[in-house]
Amino acid sequence: MLKKWLALAAIVLGLGVQSAISQAVPAFSAAGLVKLGDSVRYGSYEIFKIGEGIYQLKDQGDPRSVKGGLIGADMYIVLGKDKALMIDLGNNYMIGYKQDEILPRKNAKEEFLAVVDGLVGKLPLEATLTHAHPDHDGMTMALIERKVTVWMPKGEDLQGPKTQHGIDPAVYTSFDHQTKTFDLGGGRVLTPLMVRGHTLGCATYLMPSDDMIFTGDCLGIGAGRSLRGAESLKMWSDDTQKLVDYIKATLPPYQRYGLKVYTGHSVENVIPGFLNINHGRLDLSYLDWRFLQDQALCGNAILKGQWLNPESGLHYMEIVNSQTRQKVSLFTFGIGAVEMPVAEAFKAAGIKMYDEPAAK
Ligand SMILES: [Zn+2]
After folding, report:
1. Which CATH architecture has domain 18-218?
2. Residue 97 and residue 75: Cα distance in Å, rounded?
3. I want to staple 287 with a disulfide (CB 3.0 to 4.6 A). Which of 4, 12, 261, 344 is the partner?
4. What share of the chain is helix, strand, coil (3-state, %, to 5)?
5. Could you state, in chain order, the average pLDDT of each consecutive group of 10 residues for the chain (360 residues)?
6. Ligand 1 center to 134 CA (angstroms)
7. In 3-state terms, what secondary structure has residue 138?
8. Domain coordinates of the chain in residue numbers?
9. Cα of 309 to ligand 1 centre, how many Å?
């Protein structure tokens, strides 16, 4: 009898940490993720297999929200031979985030960690962020408590996570886009490429081994990716052109045309009629090389005031922003799109506004 009790005690002690998690939430199993495109649901997350050892984690957001929390956010996990990297950390369900109408959820940390552990297994894990916005850095503290290094691109405003989630800026490890690479082993190397505009240090991550780039909100479609002023448009166009030039110089054509562009809010890729307002919906489960080029062309064309010339290919229309409910101007070029106030576009192009009432 004593032997039995001792054996039981040993099991309880040995599984102490594990059982604390498994009691709170059911175990996550990646067994359903076999073929590319396979997906499994776990709690509030939907997990897709998008490559061998590469996963997209869709944080569904809160369907009750009429603000930023409605659209959710995408995170990614890439496994290498030696270590794993997580890109972005989604919304904060541990303490919630009022402004986006994200409410705290029971066992949010345990649920998040169960998915991460289930995918990463025993590989050492690091995380990196595309930018310091509340829907991308929300679960930071879950990983910090685990002593995981969370990288932050230089130039990001760390007061954001502090005021939004009470996160001490010191928990992040800053990196320079020019010098940092993430070598996960087995040929998987991610190179950060800076595209400022959405924020001042916004980082995309190019992974040539698998023809993928993870762009967060630095480059993405949708009403939420707005550039607020002439200065951010100039910066964004310049950096987007540099990114296109870099990819042209480093990837051969067949590889460029196979490039898969994974953004921070893939749900916005299929906004009905977003790009062909009169012709319905395009199938855009992920974006591609043409999108990156069209983004650069779109920015450059706005800077030249080309929406005033109907033959230029740059089109402009008024839409209502789904989050702010404000009327804004949408500029499209091919499958590239930029949303910004038209008065700021005039300013950026150096053209005096006519006909339109001046912005109040
Ligand atoms: Zn976002």
Report:
1. 4-Layer Sandwich (3.60)
2. 18
3. 261
4. 30, 25, 45
5. 52 47 81 96 95 96 82 95 98 93 94 97 98 96 97 97 96 98 98 95 97 94 70 95 98 96 86 62 83 94 93 88 72 87 91 66
6. 8
7. coil
8. 18-218, 238-350
9. 32
